[in-house]
Specification:
With 289 residues, the chain is of the alpha/beta class. It has a domain of 180 residues: NAD(P)-binding Rossmann-like Domain (Rossmann fold), CATH 3.40.50.720. The chain contains twelve helices and nine strands. It has a seven-stranded parallel sheet with strand order 3-2-1-4-5-6-8, with helices on both faces. Helix 1 crosses helix 7, helix 3 packs across helix 4 and helix 8 crosses helix 12. The longest helix is centred in the middle third of the chain and has 16 residues. It starts with a strand and ends with a helix. Bound molecules: NADP nicotinamide-adenine-dinucleotide phosphate. NADP nicotinamide-adenine-dinucleotide phosphate binds next to loops. The site of NADP nicotinamide-adenine-dinucleotide phosphate (NAP) has 26 residues, from loops.
Length: 289
């Protein structure tokens, strides 16, 4: 058996790499020597290639039985993951575990490019006839807050996702579910919705972060206005991606994803990690750096 891991240094992928590091039947796709070095020592094989390049994708997939497929949101995502869908079927890949996102359902939601991309890619994987398809559909990642760890440690959790409670998920749980689905003789398969232990509003999340950090943390709403756009533009985010994020956050602000996914319980037979676990085990360390 050979398992191909895309985005092995990604937010979810790095934890999957950690889980598979000792196995010699795993292949990791990276774009550069620096990314190969960032992986650290692995028993498997590291191959160079770009997901947007069909020849690279075909080469990476040669002899592969199982594939973990992920890609950042962006202009190239559908082309890159679509490349994998077609080439995986051609290469005889038996199982694909795709990282998607929980979708918005009900009235008043706009079509947003982030969840829309996952629908298109999942459709392509189904059309390609991959025999065993698992689509992981997680809620918002708790790890999204790590780049703002210093500001949170200073007492402010600024975020544009609005007032609704949602099941913020620790990506370590997503990686464990992905590993279980990749390695199982019989995967659970189908769509697996993954949430954290309970639904929390941003002020509730800020409270939990504050408890772990030993100081009050206050949630500050960030409106989706020109200043928000300008801030992202300054950080090099393209107008296309900003529009996509605008649609996504508008949906969160409208209501968000209803209820909690039970994927961790179904696949791993345990409760998901809590926001408190994340705050004390991950955020506190990031805030000290
Ligand atoms: N953030 C959330 O709250 C959230 C919630 C639900 C679902 N999701 C979904 O999660 C997915 C992203 O997963 P993630 O956050 O784990 O990934 P990620 O951290 O965004 O992935 C980054 C990695 O992708 C690699 N990469 C980028 N372009 C590439 C290309 N053309 N070819 C090969 N590798 C490439 C980069 O490799 P290099 O090291 O070479 O740069 C980098 O290591 C998105 O589809 C998003 O919709 C996110």
């Amino acid at each position: 058996m050979t398992i191909l891991i895309t985005t092995p240094n990604g937010t979810v992928g790095r934890h999957l790499t950690e889980a598979l590091r000792e196995r010699d039947d795993v292949r990791y796709l990276v774009r550069s020597a620096a990314a190969a070095e960032a992986l650290g020592e692995v028993a498997g094989e590291v191959v160079r290639g770009d997901a947007s390049d069909t020849a690279d994708v075909r080469k990476a997939l040669a002899g592969v039985d199982r594939l973990y497929l992920a890609h950042p949101f962006g202009e190239q995502q559908i082309a890159a993951e679509g490349n994998f869908a077609l080439s995986a079927a051609e290469a005889g890949v038996r199982r694909v575990v795709k990282l998607g996102a929980r979708c918005f359902t009900g009235d008043g939601f706009v079509q947003d490019a982030v969840t829309g991309a996952h629908e298109v890619i999942t459709g392509r994987l189904r059309d390609a006839g991959v025999p065993e398809l698992t689509v992981l559909s997680p809620d918002r990642f708790l790890q999204n807050f790590l780049p703002a760890a210093a500001a949170i440690a200073d007492g402010t959790l600024a975020d544009p996702a609005g007032p609704g409670a949602r099941g913020y998920v620790d990506v370590r749980d997503i990686a464990e579910v992905a590993a279980a689905e990749l390695l199982a003789e019989r995967p659970v398969g189908g769509e697996i919705e993954i949430s954290g232990r309970r639904a929390l509003t941003l002020p509730e999340l800020a409270d939990r972060f504050g408890s772990a950090l030993g100081r009050p943390v206050r949630h500050v709403d960030v409106p989706l206005d020109d200043a928000w756009r300008a801030g992202l533009t300054e950080r090099g985010v393209t107008p296309w991606v900003i529009d996509g994020l605008h649609g996504l956050y508008a949906n969160y602000r409208h209501e968000g994803v209803a209820g909690l996914g039970d994927g961790v319980q179904r696949v791993l037979g345990r409760l998901p990690r809590s926001a408190e676990d994340f705050a004390s085990e991950v955020l506190v360390r990031a805030a000290r750096r």
